[in-house]
Design a protein that fits this description.
84% helix, mainly alpha
């Protein structure tokens, strides 16, 4: 059970990290209120040395053009909600709560069909790494839930 606890705590740290990244993105969205989002997007594309005429950078810039302050507030709120769920999940996993193990297993498994589909469209290291990471999270959670079930007093 000790190996399962260590693995679950690693997943907890990973979930907290995801929450932190999303909350920082939410603050970034709030910082763009009353700013020209299209100009910010163009500067970001240029800073990353991407070709603004290519398909994905163009989509990103076009999406930024459509943003207004209300959209930014809603996106920041969605980021805060998502991050709150990730932080709650991380705390639950750290303190060995079964509900958090279930949440992590289900939320990780939900993405697997989409990741398999993306891999079927073409191999990239990012797609493969994301898929393997989610498979590992789901496997660790299933292992922890099974260990909990068999360790439970009868």
């Amino acid at each position: 059970m000790k190996a399962a606890l260590t693995s679950v705590r690693l997943v907890a740290i990973f979930e907290a990290f995801k929450g932190l990244v999303v909350i920082l993105a939410g603050f970034g969205l709030l910082s763009m209120i009353h700013a020209d989002a299209e100009q910010v997007a163009e500067r970001l594309v240029h800073h990353l040395h991407l070709d603004a005429a290519r398909h994905y950078p163009r989509i990103f810039i076009e999406a930024a053009r459509q943003l207004n302050d209300v959209h930014l507030w809603w996106l920041a709120l969605a980021a805060a909600i998502y991050a709150s769920i990730r932080f709650a999940e991380a705390a639950g996993l750290w303190f060995e709560k079964a509900w958090a193990e279930w949440l992590a297993a289900i939320s990780g498994a939900i993405y697997l069909p989409f990741e398999i589909y993306e891999l079927s469209r073409g191999f990239t290291w990012l797609r493969l790494t994301t898929f393997i990471g989610n498979v590992l999270v789901v496997a660790v959670m299933i292992y922890a839930l099974r260990a909990r079930r068999f360790d439970a007093p009868r």
